[in-house]
């Protein structure tokens, strides 16, 4: 007779564990969908950049992204916005990329130190 209560407890533990696993799977599914959407958006952005930038301009942009990641992302967003709005005719070459970088570059702060 002592086997029945143990089996009931064991079955109850199994049930609780199954419920926990299902909850994790449901919450993990939303994260996976969000991550897949992010990857798809990133792939579309890279395709647009490949389509509208020459190899030299892409190399320059990658160099900027390595040294200043936030600024590089800002430039990428600007190029994607220009491409989607149809304001880019042809491809952006290295000279045009330099010009775009100068326009988007944050104002550098200058410090004047005066010694007395």
Automatic annotation (TrEMBL):
A GO molecular-function descriptor: DNA binding
Key word DNA-binding present: yes
GO cellular component annotations of the record: cytosol
Source taxon at top rank: Archaea
Pfam families registered for this protein in UniProt: dsDNA_bind
Keyword DNA-binding among record annotations: yes
Chain positions covered by the region annotation Disordered: 1-46
Compositionally biased intervals (Low complexity): 35-46
Basic and acidic residues bias locations: 11-26
Acidic residues bias spans: 1-10
PANTHER family xref list: PROGRAMMED CELL DEATH PROTEIN 5 (PTHR10840)
Family classification: Belongs to the PDCD5 family.
Protein name, entry field: DNA-binding protein EA472_19370
């Amino acid at each position: 007779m002592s086997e029945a209560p143990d089996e009931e407890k064991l079955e109850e533990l199994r049930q609780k564990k199954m419920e926990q696993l299902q909850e994790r799977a449901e919450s993990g599914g939303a994260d996976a969908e969000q991550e897949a959407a992010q990857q798809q958006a990133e792939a579309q952005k890279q395709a647009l950049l490949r389509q509208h930038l020459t190899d030299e301009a892409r190399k320059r942009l990658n160099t900027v992204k390595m040294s200043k990641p936030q600024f590089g992302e800002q430039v990428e967003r600007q190029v994607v916005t220009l491409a989607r709005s149809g304001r880019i005719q042809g491809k952006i070459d290295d000279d045009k990329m330099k010009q775009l970088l100068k326009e988007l570059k944050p104002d550098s702060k200058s410090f004047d130190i005066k010694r007395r």
